[in-house]
Design goal:
Layout: H1 2-19, H2 25-38, H3 52-61, H4 76-88, H5 94-97
Helix pairs in contact: 2-4, 3-4
Length: about 100
């Protein structure tokens, strides 16, 4: 029985990480951040050129009204890409501020 169980467990270990595809930074922003940070619930982030470490720490651990996002919600790789993306974005134009996220 162990001869069958071990290969099955190894197969699951190889397949499981592939099922958790990493989202692009823009998708994480749209799914998780934009609603609050575009609608004035949280501070505007785009165009401020915030340090990536600051973005990562606040997203992972939260602060005041900002909730903490667990690794199961935003992976470390997604968070790093998101922080990089946020830090490089220009400020939104007046027209973009009035568009829905």
């Amino acid at each position: 029985m162990n001869d069958i169980l071990l290969p099955a467990l190894l197969a699951l270990a190889i397949v499981a990480p592939a099922a958790q595809a990493e989202r692009k930074a823009q998708q994480v922003w749209a799914d998780t951040c934009a609603y609050c940070h575009v609608n004035g619930i949280g501070p505007a982030l785009l165009g401020r050129h915030l340090p990536q470490a600051t973005v990562q720490a606040l997203a992972r651990y939260g602060s005041r009204q900002m909730p903490a996002f667990r690794n199961s919600e935003i992976s470390d790789a997604e968070l790093a890409a998101l922080a990089d993306w946020i830090s490089q974005q220009p400020a939104p134009t007046e027209e973009q501020r009035h568009e829905a996220p």
